[in-house]
Amino acid sequence: MNRLTWVPLILAAFLASTACYPPRNAMQKTARKYQSGKLTEDTSYIYQLPFRAGTKSRVIQGYFSRFTHKHRAALDFRMRPGTEIRAARSGIVIRTKDDSNQGGWNKKYRPDANFVMIEHEDSSRASYRHLKYQGVLVKEGEKVTTGQVLGYSGKTGYSALPHLHFMVSVFQEGRWVQIPTRFESNPETGYLRPWRKYKSVNVPRYR
Ligand SMILES: [Zn+2]
Hints:
This protein has helices at residues 3-18, 27-36; strands at 46-48, 56-61, 74-78, 84-86, 91-97, 103-104, 114-119, 125-136, 143-144, 149-153, 157-158, 163-172, 175-179, 182-186, 197-200. By secondary structure, it is mainly beta. The protein has a single domain, classed as Glucose Permease (Domain IIA), CATH 2.70.70.10. Strands 1, 2, 3, 4, 5, 7, 8, 9, 10, 12, 13, 14 and 15 form a 13-stranded mixed beta sheet that branches. It has a two-stranded parallel ribbon with strand order 6-11. Strand 12 and strand 13 (175-179) form a beta hairpin. The N and C termini lie far apart (63 Å).
């Protein structure tokens, strides 16, 4: 292949990878604005980071990013396998799974993620995904408090590297909608941004 052929090919591939796509979720634009700091609000619930107080984790994927969160208002926290996952907010455990030891960089593994799902008092639900095999410490129906250990991180399910996928959904107009949430953290409290490291405060002040 000569140069005249592959230069336009590379250009086309580049443009395709950066091209905009229509937002499927109405929250998408708002979420990006929250994350970039263009939009602020001070009324929503403030979550605690889902790991031990005093420890740090880097957000390796933010809301609606193009890698695997294209249609998800979810955060990925980089985590060494076996790291304690802690409740970001109190609630009732409504579903768990920890019988999978499958995972990897392939969509076929999507149903294989181990997880804990918690319902909060306002009926919103948080899910904590990719936990390790037999790594869930709570039971369905159990009440959990902010900061309580729910289990251990891993990389089960559709996951390129070990991390925690954290996501909150609310039931609106007949369907579950994922929403961005604020966190209390060091150095800042608010909407977390990709590639930054955040330190958990994890004081169960907000229940
Ligand atoms: Zn994720």
